[in-house]
Amino acid sequence: TRTLDHDFLNTPPMKTVRFGGSVTDTLMKFRQGDTSDYELLKHQLADPDIKDAQIINWLQELRSCLSQLTKDHEQLVHAALRLPWLGRSAAVVEEYMAFLGNLVSAQTVYLRSCLKMIVSNFTPGRIVIQEGNVNISDSDDNDEHLPRNFDLCHQALQMIARYVPSTARFLMPILCENFPFVTKSSRTLECYVHNLLRVTVYFPVLRREILELVVSKMLKLDVSAGMGGGTETKYGAVFNRTVFFFFFFNLRSVMEHPVAERLDVLMAVLLAYIKDMCHSNGVLQLERTKELYRDLVCVFDKLLLPTHACCHVQYALFYLCSFRVGLAEAFLEHLWKLLQSPSQPAILRQAAAGYIGSFLARAKFVPVMTVKACLDLLVPWLHRYIDSQDSGSFCDVTLHGPFYAACQAVFYTLVFRHRAILEGNMRKGLAYLQSLNLERIVMSQLNPLKVCLPSVANMFASITRNYQLVFCYTVIERNNRLQLPMVRSSQGGSCQPTDMNPLDSFFPFDPYLLRRSGKVIEPIYQVWEEPSDHEVKGHQKPARQVSTEEEDDFLHGETLQADDVVGMTPGSYESHLRSPSSVGSPPVTFLQRPF
Asked: What interhelical angle do 286-299 and 207-223 show, nearest 10?
């Protein structure tokens, strides 16, 4: 007897014990004005210790009276939707899925609530961490149920879509509303972005909007990764590459750069998604690739092109173009149309020129034939532009910004690709370069060397003099001698000194600094190769030593001085969601479960 008494006193009752009547009786009492059982029912549904058997029992009863669960019972339905179904037995999951399907069929008014519940599980659960008086709670990175939970969420979305064909239209605003703050942990952001991109697999109609959402959030990270070292402007924080580089590389052993770490993780997610969406069993799927290319170009036009000082996100399109030369040529043709279109704002035309020059210079996968084809478009356009000017024209960035940007794109391309043009057949290559008549452009009254970055102008001058193509130093020395103190900026406003980058030059494919995702970019990226002594004869090389991990080009930060964020600055998946210590591990494909 003692043993029985002892067991009774120390053993809690099974949670299948319930209080109040059935759900049907409770709803009837509620209609008659008696809410006591109704409130008790909501309380029992919210019990954190609720057992599987009781969840199944409640869901079965709720399913039997769905026609009564009108908008008046919103609180009760929401309590049922919040039942802890993930991480539970297969029987609970099956019953919960059936409840969702029946609910959206019988009461479409709850569609948004069901979608919100599912999307809220796109990130790991939170754990509470208190340090003193500071709450630093964030995601639970060790949840072993994450792979299964995410699978079930996507199954639920697809099941709901079968019952309600308009699901996609209601889902997109919820995906936007639930996007975690970019200050959340890398893990949280990675899970959410991965799940967003996974939605595009079965809701392809949402892909462009989802890519736009993801890119806009990544741009916020990209342009704000200066750790406070950037200049604050009316457009927001400017990305300071020098400060970023110093902290992310030189101090990496002492501290992490949290913004760069998040951006690196998300770039790895996006690049692996692009790879897997375009390939099947290692074979490029051309039609799927073209569709993704078209979506990414639309996002590029809307978000990337107008954003000055972004350093990494644009590499998503760079990577996609590496899959096939035709994609790279299509991208260049798109940029060319933007550059020469007088209906486009000058600042966007200049940005397009910057993308052309940087892409031709840095993309290893662009053959010399394509480089020459682009020069055959750009250079004659420059000559026609000069022809259109009257004798009174002079150097003015505001009036001729796209012209100067195109000049700099040509000079920059030749600095990087002149060897490729000349190798194999020096005589033929020189004849081609001579046919461009670059001297006429350099010597024109518009004086492009005065506006281009000095480092670009000087390197171009050194290389072209070596091959006796153009003698630029006369013009450069005259410009230095005259020291015209002011040139109007292409962005308008007050004048600025001539050494302050009046073109607001921006090379979007400058060296890629993120380490994890950079492993994908490295094989397709053309680093700066120091020219031989005879090529730079007369060119003043910088005295300071440059580490191999620092920017590999000859600009030495010149584009940083006048950086502004112009136009629109929007407000894994390498991944088995690795910790920073596992950066050296091999990448996994997007469709593999990283969690």
From this structure: 50
